[in-house]
Hints:
single chain, Rossmann fold, globular, 37% helix, alpha/beta
Amino acid sequence: xxxxxxxxxxxxxxxxxxxxxxxxxxxxxxxxxxxxxxxxxxxxxxxxxxxxxxxxxxxxxxxxxxxxxxxxxxxxxxxxxxxxxxxxxxxxxxxxxxxxxxxxxxxxxxxxxxxxxxxxxxxxxxxxxxxxxxxxxxxxxxxxxxxxxxxxxxxxxxxxxxxxxxxxxxxxxxxxxxxxxxxxxxxxxxxxxxxxxxxxxxxxxxxxxxxxxxxxxxxxxxxxxxxxxxxxxxxxxxxxxxxxxxxxxxxxxxxxxxxxxxxxxxxxxxxxxxxxxxxxxxxxxxxxxxxxxxxxxxxxxxxxxxxxxxxxxxxxxxxxxxxxxxxxxxxxxxxxxxxxxxxxxxxxxxxxxxxxx
Length: 357
Ligand code: SAH
């Protein structure tokens, strides 16, 4: 099905049964988008940290190796990655883990057949899962999710003159426009926010909360540690963070659904709380730049540049892109989690999620 027919299908649906929720619109648009392409890299729509440089996945691998070594656990381990994209992060992290003598089973949670094919070429014998439910529960997890939570659909509520309503997508002629739903939603809004100004928007991500609760429950039951990396905020606020990117440029999220990457910022306070509530220890929340610096990315960059002097400028640019405050260093954050009895892990310097302060 092409993106045109997805838009046509949304139009028929809305004409027949009325506006659909923003969550429904985003969920279907994303399912279509990821099922039909490899969106990553210079020829795709966006570039992620593991595609910028091998240093990113290597630092993740080093963090996991350190935690696993210090845990005292000597048996089997499962490397689990949510939304592994091209498999680049997994390849770089597993190379480092194996250098430390840690050779986990590899389990990839990936919904896209197109990306599973790319991952198979890159990683060889791995096991795929549609979601976490089928990942084995018989050994501790070394779990990684980079730019996964931002791809889960958000639910939006909007304050109207008559109280809170679900934010919906309606039709104005052929155009998709946002409107307020008809049913009162005040009961779904925390008391402190009930009287927000008209037009205020609250965003939640039910899918992210569910995944984080499952990760938390598994870390509590199986042991292990997890790193969840994404762009997002430590303190929740108001506003829609929905954005669409196609060909490395921002586009209107409500034009041509299914043809652009749709994302929302991750609410790290909510993500941490869901995992903690299910039994995991929250190790901390760091800016990506701080996290990578503490793990020694500058030394790794220097070593790579020494080994390949003709690539010095490229390596310096990648280091800046991953860690610079104006680039990915401050907007991207790293949430660290561990099972009870597992060590703290390096790289969490000071900043706790809002709910942990
Ligand atoms: N982690 C990779 C890719 C990020 S893009 C990187 O950093 O380069 C988001 C990834 O999540 C893609 O692999 C996409 O197919 C996958 N994905 C998105 N929504 C998903 C869902 N609901 N279930 C499983 N995988 C999903």
